Amino acid sequence: MPVTSRQRHATRLHGIPPTIFSQMSALAARTGAVNLGQGFPDVDGPPAVIAQAVAALRGGANQYAPGPGVPALRAAIARHQRRHYGIDLDPDTEVVVTTGCTEGIAAALLGLVDPGDEVVVLEPYYDSYLAMIQMAGGVRRPVTLRAPDFRLDVDALRAEVSPRTRLILLNSPHNPTGTVLTRAELQAVADVAVEHDLVVVTDEVYEHLTYDDHGHVPIATLPGMAERTLTLSSAGKSYSFTGWKVGWATGPADLVGAVLGAKQWLTFTSGSPLQPAVAHALDEEPDFPRRLAVELRERRDLLCAGLAAAGLDVREPEGTYFATTDTSALGWPDGLAFCLALPERAGVVAIPTQGFHDDADAGRHLVRWAFCKQPEVIAEGVRRLAAADLRAGGR
User: Fold this and answer.
1) Cα separation of 168 and 171, whole Å?
2) How sure is the predictor about 1, in pLDDT bands with cuts at 50, 70 and 90?
3) Which candidate, 7, 168, 182, 223, has a CA 20 to 30 Å from the CA of 143?
4) Half-sphere exposure of 204 (CA within 13 A, CB side)
């Protein structure tokens, strides 16, 4: 077999590590630990929606769907945006179906960012943001949501905008911190976008999963923003079908067209039999996300109380599936060391978030915990944490 020293992977992949979510979930499976790391529920969404997918499979919806998505789903997405937010969309030109929000992010960045363009992004960031900005040849300009409150620093946002800035990549409700940006914070982002004529790409997959009085406000509804905002979301989180990978992008026709222009060379189209089922979910099961949010709030409270009882400094999230703790008082060098030791120490898996920061000090000791699990799973996880010595050097 010939020996070669030639590099076999493209330089665009340099510095992009394997996703931590797969690594930690594999660790949970290997050790039998309670997985409070990766954000997927352990109970499926509405049975009637599953029945619609089965009916579509049996009814012949097994060939390519139209590239932009089946008309019924695009129309249902448009109705969803009108019903919840008063946003009017043309389903033929202002809606495109994607293979989950992850493809929406990829297609948006590939379709809108040229090499050298700067992308302002909130950190800690979902790890696909880093990967896709780099693959598009963009330059990320992070704005840090800092512990313990994880609020937007408007001055820091303004400082990152330059003549080379192309877009702002927003995420609210925010993964992993659980922050829900307020109307005032969103207005500050809108002011910057309008002043500098920037596009805003906003990831709103947790739009319906907010708690207490922290309601989600789409930035597209603010004055001057409808014409410059591309909104991404999906059915995965709102309807507990994360494995279906059915998402969408909505907004002005030119921005949606840019997503479609890239998507056609990524997946071409998305799962045909799942699209009618998601249309049914949006139209016929509109109350499911609200009921799910009520259940998740109770699980959030269970997890946060357990984390605090185990000696972890926890911030109560305003939305999403996740709570964040600061482990610096426990003596570990960083959150990764803590999380790698945790399965043996306590029989639990969590996600270190330091890899989601450019600012290494800001994220060094932060750890994310998922509460989208059944209450008994969360209870067992926090019982194990309470019984363990979580300090570095302890047993």
Assistant:
1) 10
2) low
3) 223
4) 23
335-to-31, 82, 197, 349, 354 alpha-carbon distances in Å: 19, 42, 38, 12, 7
φ/ψ region of 374 (left if φ > 0, alpha if ψ in -120 to 50, else beta) reads beta
Q: What would the pLDDT profile of 65-92 be if each residue is shown by its tens digit?
A: 999 999 999 999 999 999 999 999 999 9
| Integer Cα distance of 152 and 361 in angstroms | 17
Structure tokens at 193: 């976008």
Q: Does 369 lie in the same domain as 277?
A: no
- One domain, residues 110 and 191: yes
Asked if 186 and 222 count as a contact pair (C-beta separation under 8 A), the reply is: yes
What are the beta bridge partners of residue 122? 143
Looking up residue 16, the CATH number of its domain turns out to be 3.90.1150.10
CATH number, position 182 = 3.40.640.10
For 75-121, the DSSP string reads: HHHHHHHHHHH-----TTTSEEEESHHHHHHHHHHHHH--TT-EEEE
The rounded distance, in Å, linking the Cα atoms of 312 and 41 is 23
Backbone angles phi, psi at 39, to 5 degrees: -90, 75
> And the tokens for 109?
């960045």
* pTM tops 0.90: yes
Sign of dihedral through CA atoms 8, 9, 10, 16? negative
Range of the domain at 306: 11-45+288-387
* Of residues 381, 376, 236, the one with CA closest to residue 323: 381
Among residues 239, 269, 284, which one ends one of the domains?
A: 284
Whether the CB-CB separation of 118 and 139 falls below 8 Å is answered with yes
Q: What is the DSSP string of 126-138?
A: -HHHHHHHHHTT-
Domain count, the chain: 2
Question: In 10 A of CB 69, how many CB atoms?
Answer: 28
pLDDT in tens, 97-117: 999 999 999 999 999 999 999
For residue 2, tell me if it sits in a domain. no
State whether 276 and 364 are in the same domain.
Answer: no
Place of tokens 């209870």: 379
Is residue 395 domain-resident? no
**Hey, what amino acid is at 174?**
H
Q: Which of 147, 90, 201, 197 is nearest to 327 (CA)?
A: 147
Separation between Cα atoms, residue 227 and residue 96, nearest integer Å: 16
For 182, the 3-state DSSP assignment is coil
